[in-house]
Amino acid sequence: MFKENKGEVLHGILLIVLFSFSAFYITEFEFVKQLSFSPLIVGIILGMLYANSLRNKLPETWVPGIKFCSKQILRTGVVLYGFKLTFQQVLAIGLPAITADLIIVAGTLALGILMGKLLKVDSQTALMTSTGSAICGAAAVLGAEPVVRCEAHKTAVAVSTVVIFGTLSMFLYPIMYRAGWLDGLSDQAIAVYIGSTLHEVAHVVGAGNAIDAAGGNVADAATITKMIRVMLLAPVLVIMSVCLSGKQKNKGITGKSKITIPWFAFYFLVVIGINSLLQSATFIPQETLQAGIGFINNVDTFLLTMAMTALGAETSIDKFKQAGAKPFYLAGILYVWLVFGGYAIVKLLF
Known about the structure:
Number of strands: 0
Radius of gyration: 20 Å
Transmembrane segments: 9-26, 32-51, 90-114, 126-144, 156-176, 227-247, 259-278, 328-346
Main location: membrane
Keywords: Cell membrane, Membrane, Transmembrane, Transmembrane helix
Structural class: mainly alpha
Low-confidence stretches: none
Number of helices: 17
Mean pLDDT: 85
Strand content: under 5%
Largest sheet: none
GO cellular component, one term: plasma membrane
Number of domains: 1
Membrane topology: Multi-pass membrane protein
Helix content: over 70%
């Protein structure tokens, strides 16, 4: 990429940086806060607005910088996301929560692939949509993108489904709690239900806090359960890479059947391990440690926002029309599975 004029590449990167700063500013608006939209979601919306308005009026030579953000910056952001997690969190929440996460992640991916075939959804779009629903929303879609190697608009479609149904869940679950529909579950079970079935971390936090305000005590445990799902991103990406390689071999594709090892997924686990060690280190002042980790997390959120904005900048309305409504039908089916199937699984385990 750097064979291109470096100045032109930097122009594209700076454009995405400016949009990303704007995304952070917009998330401070009160109505955006109420929707619990993260800068990542706002970023992809801004990128799509740019793609459908100003894109043709700016130099095409800026495109390599935009692609740099949607590739290299994306991988860096996924790796640093590990500083939000620790292995101690896994041990704290217990085996039932881990089991629920494993069943729901595996079930969502399997159902998504199956229903994608039945609905005749493009296989890459189906896989990206299923991954977003199964693991951690937009961050999972971003993590899967380098492995699936799909076009930017397919990534944007998958993220859009996460935004729609995840936001719906954030409001639905507190309503279900207040209506007494979750009375059959203990607070611990409700926390696991929320963490194992909602799409984004922000959605889990929003729903958990709303239920706590209504008299529950679920937000912290729900967030930890969600983080366990996030940890499953690394092994899922490795399995995905092996399966996609095998699929290429079965189709007789030569020269491209080599397994793509998602090294950034392993680095992600290494970072989780480093963070786990840091959090348990007694010789580091906690105030200093938390300030440092907080700074890294803020930088990481900005990098992921840049990646999302760049993906949005490569997505036009025409490409959404090309994808059609089927990916949203697929996401809707997965949503029903998460709400009702997730409840049944948690009820069985608790």
